[in-house]
Amino acid sequence: MEALGSTIIRHVVTTQRRQPEAGDLSGVLNDLLAVAKVISREVNKAGLAGILGLTGEVNVQGEEVQKLDEYANDIISKQMATSGYVCVMASEEVDDPIPAAPGCEGEYTLAFDPLDGSSNIDVNVNIGTIFSIHRKITQGKAGSAEDLLQPGRTQVCAGYIVYGSSTMLVYSMGYGVHGFTLDPSIGEFILSHPNIKMPAKGKIYSVNEGNHNYWHENTKRYVDYLKESDPETKRPYSLRYIGSLVADFHRTLLKGGIFMYPRDYKDPHKPKGKLRLLYEAAPMAFLAEQAGGRASDGEQDILDIAPAGLHQRVPLYIGSREDIDQAEKFIKGEV
Ligand code: AHM
Ligand code: MG
After folding, report:
1. Integer Cα distance of 150 and 72 in angstroms
2. Do 60 and 110 belong to one domain?
């Protein structure tokens, strides 16, 4: 009989034993995994349980909140507030920092997108939960916004759970990127994708081209370049776009290429990206770098941006290193 393989907690504990500076993250991850399993169950039965559709409420981003988003947000924030590992949290669904329950303050901060890609729930397309963990930097027990507003570079752990044909958790503690698949029969995440590495250059680009008219000239030139025919540089690239960051990033991580959500000029006075720095761009950037790839806002590494607000948005170019280097050259107007 074969051994079960490495469960996620065994993997975290082994990493800590080899890299004591990694810190004790098994407790935080253990609690996150427990809620991920519950969310996975709810996502899988959403059609049956009748919890699809809109609540009609509007979240802090001005978007309609769907029932499953609310559910995921509630269960993560309640579970983690009493975990004893986290002092303060930021969630896409909540305007202000979420404090830990009194007496339960721990040494980490958690930023999360409870259910990313929620516009896809109704059509049975992959959605996911994204998380980012930092160490607390302020004095005292209670955490504050300052603890949450740290650059991505200082993350101690980041990852996502993708609820797809199977449920997978992909994470990094700064020692490579590792993927685990949930075996529903035993309720454990088992190591299925050890030490994931992104190809240095890919063949796929992923972007919402419906926004083409709102892009900067340099963005248009870059995307046009990807579509030109040049066998030597393996162009044209293929286009894949799901509209769920977790799913689009997951494919990019495994197959390489570039995912982008460029700044748009819908409002010419306020050009902006769509994706949020703290709980979308930064954790994915951490994973991309750990897998040998890169993430940029077009000008600088996503991981070097000092956040100014919990819900700050950034343009995002993420994927294979050579593809991101090239995209940056176009965006900066160097080619
Ligand atoms: P959400 O957090 O409200 O679900 O929005 C983020 C999502 C990402 O998953 C995805 O990459 C992007 O929005 C898709 O946006 P668009 O529909 O404009 O292409
Ligand atoms: Mg999101």
Report:
1. 24
2. yes
Place of tokens 């902006």: 272
What value does the mean pLDDT of the chain take? Answer: 92
DSSP letter, residue 61: T
Would you state the structure tokens that stand for residue 279, as one six-digit string?
Answer: 């709980």
For residue 264 and ligand 1, the question of a CB distance below 6 A is answered with no
The closest-lying atom of ligand 1 relative to the alpha carbon of residue 275 is 6
**Quick check: CB of 113 below 6 Å from ligand 1?**
yes
- Residues of the chain with pLDDT below 70 are 1-4, 46-66
184 and 221 share a domain?
no
The whole-model pTM stands at 0.94
Q: Which ligand is nearest to the CA of 247?
A: 1
Determine how β-strand 178-183 pairs with β-strand 275-276.
unpaired
Tell me the β-bridge partners of 169: 161, 180
Tell me which residue has its CA closest to atom 15 in ligand 1. 243
pLDDT given at position 267: 92
Say whether both 124 and 273 belong to one domain: no
Residue 305 sits in a domain whose CATH number is 3.40.190.80
| C-alpha 19 to ligand 2 mean position (Å) | 32
Q: Which domain holds residue 92?
A: 8-193
Ligand 1 binding pocket mutation candidate from 209, 244, 263, 278 (most atoms within 8 A of CB): 244
Phi-psi region of 323 (alpha: psi -120 to 50; beta: other; left: phi over 0): alpha
With respect to residue 199, please indicate whether it lies within any of the assigned structural domains: no
- Pairing mode of beta strands 157-163, 167-172: antiparallel
131: in domain: yes
pLDDT at 62: 66
